[in-house]
Design brief:
Layout (H helix, E strand, L loop, with lengths): L1 H16 L1 H30 L11 E8 L2 E4 L3 H10 L4 E14 L6 E8 L3 H5 L3 E4 L15 E4 L1 H8 L9 E4 L2 E9 L14 E4 L3 H4 L16 E6 L5 H18 L8 E6 H4 L3 H39 L1 H9 L4 H34 L18 H26 L4 H5 L6 H37 L10 E6 L8 H16 L4 E7 L9 E6 L12 E7 L3 H5 L5 E2 L13 E5 H7 L9 E4 L2 E9 L14 E5 L8 E7 L3 H15 L6 E5 L3 H41 L1 H9 L4 H34 L8 H30 L3 H5 L3
Length: about 800
């Protein structure tokens, strides 16, 4: 221990003795360690962190319904109740929840915030405790509309009342109904989706009272819109609970054959669900890619610093030789040098936490362009700090080991005389590091380039509608107590006002815009079509107004769009996309065909192009559009297209709604192009982060190669002076020095290109397809790095060619 403390004291003195060297090493490693920490904090928050604010989160599970093509489906309220009643032997609690828009009167104008409707046992099932007041009691799960109470989140309480303690006992006007606040949740609790911070929760039995559109939804077994969360009983395994759910599904299928045909149930541990199990593989894949790339940046930094330590080893060759001559063992010297590198690394790790803190602060400011409070909640918690410490120690060993081994193997006699001792071994190590640096940098730069070009490609994808020249906003009249007749009059008046504005070309609406959050599907039957075994017949759909396609600038390929005559008294009609036609009626005329769903027959009257509906990376999917009047819903997303600036169209939307009802909230008014923001968020985050990593890798590679070659030239000053004295020209000296470095650079480039190609096979699954930009990236990235490396070689080579032979020959 005494010897180790001595090594630490000696390392400390060296830090002070060489301030420039110390600063360069710490800054280089701090950036790499800090970015690794920031990226891992995101992975920890999204994939690894136990559900905050809950008890024994490892026992929490989610229960999904399955059907062909739907591996993780939602549940209906009757289905949830059956599962709760029939699984008490394996599950100690079964709860249900769903998102719900809350129009809350606060100030001069109501605001729409995102909340949840939950069963009364939701909080008990999750094992949450209130910060103030209480959660729901069992009695509030009975009597529809009989218990108008609400539990607020800590954020919701602060937003509405300023202080969470002042909220309990107060009343709020929520969706046209007075609700009493009975409790406030703990600040860390946000439910089963911790990245979403709801304003509050209301009991399930209040759903029809606050959401008139859901009338009858509590009774319809086929109306699947709820999510189910449960808790495993102590001593019950995941497999046992899953087996019991399978048995329950068989029992329900026998009782309700029409509702359970080809269906099943799946149990997923909460720790494995992430944001949603259907996104889990994409989340893990993208996280693995980004962690790998930022890990490459750390390796490039380690190679850089290792080169610096090798260069310093030459300056300390005499010191090492004297200590060896005085009887010090090589193991002792290696240990001391590794302690030095660890001290450097630990200081860099501490500085890296500042870098990580800045990056995390930036990431936590990310918001979604919609009325949802998105909170990634990245932080430097013990798990992240443990990761940082581990990375710091490993990095210290990585960049310190090779220089330590080389520095403790000097040629004793030349070193004791103070002569340059470079040696073939050290030169080979330095050449190897140049090769490694080029290879790693090309892999890093190529991967970064692929994601940046992928982001550019994503913005040019054909999504089935035109983003420019339009604005959108969400309006929910029923949440203000409007019935259907009043809602229809409101929309008719709003459309008339907007169409009368100069420059407005079309006004339409849909219940859920493409590429947003939220979608609906229906089980369909196509007369004459026999589904293959395991083929999913649930098709996604949207409910639209007659001018929706004109407002979205979506062409009609065949047939017609909806008209005002397609009302509730007319023959039910549907418009399908081209993928729907290719799947069910290939090579035949689709117009006049029948689509059977929800117990009704709809006649196909039009065909539109296949677009993007759920995500930019999705495969072409079948999609249906129904007239809003025939498949009624009140909450709609307005779309106004015109020849005016989109922000002007946003203003027209706001003013139009305010003129008809000043108390009706206008939610997420924004240019239609912002709708792509949510879909592009993963690509933008990945592209931005990896672009930064690639730029840093390029900088580190250039600086590292320059440093090695500058040091190499310094070691060969006498040799170069002799060559010049014997008649070597400047050009010959430049070719000599650059030729030495270019061999390693080219070898590293070949290895790097092969590594980049191998990496591409691993990451192509998270890219939006491939194309010319992909090929260009594999050409441009190596060429850019090769140009930077050539410049880094040329500068010291040119300096060597200008040496004064007399000065060089006197060089020690």
């Amino acid at each position: 221990m005494k010897t180790l403390l001595h090594d630490f004291r000696l390392a400390g003195r060296l830090l002070v003795k060489y301030p420039l060297f110390t600063t360069i090493v710490i800054l280089t490693m701090a950036v790499a360690i800090g970015l690794n920490t920031a990226v891992f904090s995101a992975v920890e928050a999204l994939l690894l962190r136990p559900l905050p604010g809950t008890a024994a989160p490892e026992r929490i599970v989610q229960v999904f319904r399955t059907a062909p093509g739907i591996p993780f489906g939602s549940s209906s309220v009757p289905h949830y109740l059956d599962v709760r009643e029939r699984t008490g032997d394996v599950l100690s609690g079964v709860a249900t929840w769903s998102f719900a828009p809350f129009n809350i009167s606060s100030g001069e104008r109501p605001q729409q915030l995102m909340g949840m409707v939950v069963s009364a046992n939701y909080f008990a099932t999750l094992g949450a405790r209130p910060a103030h007041g209480r959660f729901f009691v069992d009695e509030e799960d009975a009597g529809r509309g009989a218990h108008p109470v609400v539990v607020l989140s800590a954020t919701g309480a602060r937003t509405l009342f300023g202080d969470a303690r002042d909220a309990v006992g107060e009343e709020i006007f929520l969706n046209g109904r007075t609700m009493q606040v009975v409790g406030v949740a703990a600040p860390e609790f946000r439910g089963v989706l911790p990245v979403i911070d709801p304003v509050g929760w209301v009991p399930l039995m209040q759903m029809e009272a606050i959401m008139p559109e859901r009338a009858g939804a509590l009774d319809r077994r086929g109306n699947n819109f709820m999510n189910v969360v449960a808790r495993l009983r102590d001593g019950v395994s995941r497999e046992q609970a899953a087996a019991r759910l399978t048995a329950v599904n068989a029992e329900l299928a026998a009782l309700h054959p029409d509702d359970y045909a080809k269906s099943g149930m799946r149990l997923v541990l909460q720790s494995e669900a992430g944001i949603h199990p259907s996104f889990r593989s994409a989340q893990v894949g993208l996280s693995a890619v980004i962690m790998t790339v930022v890990g490459l940046l750390l390796l490039v930094a380690c190679v850089n610093v290792s080169n610096l330590f090798l260069a310093r080893a030459n300056d300390r060759a005499r010191e090492m030789a004297i200590r060896l001559a005085l009887g010090a063992s090589r193991a002792q010297l290696v240990r001391q040098l590794l302690v030095e590198s660890l001290v450097f690394s630990l200081l860099a790790g501490a500085a890296g936490l500042l870098v990580a803190s800045l990056a995390i602060g930036f990431a936590n400011q990310i918001s979604l362009p919609m009325a949802i409070s998105f909170r990634p909640d990245l932080r430097l918690n013990p798990t992240v700090l443990g990761f940082t410490f581990g990375v710091t120690v490993i990095a210290g060993v990585l960049f310190g080991l090779a220089p330590a081994l080389q520095a403790t193997r000097p040629s004793l006699v030349p070193a004791l005389k103070g002569e340059a001792a470079g040696g073939g071994g050290r030169s080979r190590v330095q050449r190897g590091l140049i090769v490694a640096q080029m290879a790693l940098s090309i892999i890093l730069l190529t991967c970064a380039g692929l994601f940046v070009s992928n982001l550019r490609a994503a913005t040019t994808l054909d999504v089935g509608f035109t983003l420019a020249g339009a604005a959108t906003a969400t309006v929910s009249p029923s949440l203000q107590g409007y019935d259907r007749a009043r809602t229809e009059r409101f929309y008719a008046s709003l459309f008339e006002r907007l169409r009368a504005e100069p420059g407005v070309r079309a006004v339409g609406m849909i219940d859920a815009l493409p590429l947003g959050i939220g979608s609906s599907d229906r089980l369909v039957e196509i007369p004459g079509y026999v589904a293959a075994e395991g083929e999913g017949m649930h098709i996604h759909y949207g409910r639209i107004s007659p001018d929706y396609f004109a407002a979205m600038d979506t062409p009609i390929r065949r047939g017609r769009a909806f008209t005002a005559q397609d009302d509730s008294a007319a023959v039910p009609v549907v418009v399908v996309n081209e993928r729907f036609v290719e799947r069910f009626w290939p090579g035949t005329e689709p117009l006049g065909r029948t689509v059977r769903t929800a117990g009704r027959d709809f006649t196909v009257v039009g065909v539109v192009p296949t677009g993007k509906y759920m995500s930019l990376g999705e495969e072409p999917r079948a999609f249906m559009f129904f007239p809003q009047a025939q498949y009624w819903t009140s909450a709609m997303q307005m779309v106004v297209r015109g020849d005016r600036d989109p922000q002007e169209l946003v203003r027209l939307l706001r003013e139009g709604v305010a003129a008809l009802d000043p108390q009706l909230p206008v939610v997420s008014p924004q240019p239609l192009a912002a709708q792509l923001g949510t879909a592009l968020l993963p690509a933008r985050l990945a592209g931005g982060a990896l672009g930064l990593f690639g730029a840093l890798g390029l900088l580190l590679a250039g600086v590292g190669i320059y440093g090695v070659m500058a040091h190499s030239v310094g070691q060969r000053t006498r040799e170069i002076g002799i060559r010049i004295a014997l008649g070597a020209t400047s050009q010959r000296v430049v070719r000599l020095v650059m030729g030495q470095g270019l061999r390693q650079v080219l070898l590293g480039s070949v290895i790097g290109i092969a590594g980049a190609a191998a990496s591409f096979t691993l990451i192509r699954g998270v890219l939006y397809g491939t194309g010319p930009t992909t090929v260009a990236t594999f050409v441009v990235a190596p060429l850019v790095l090769l140009a930077v490396a050539t410049l880094a070689l040329f500068v010291p080579a040119r300096r060597a060619a200008r040496l004064d032979p007399q000065v060089a020959l006197r060089h020690d």
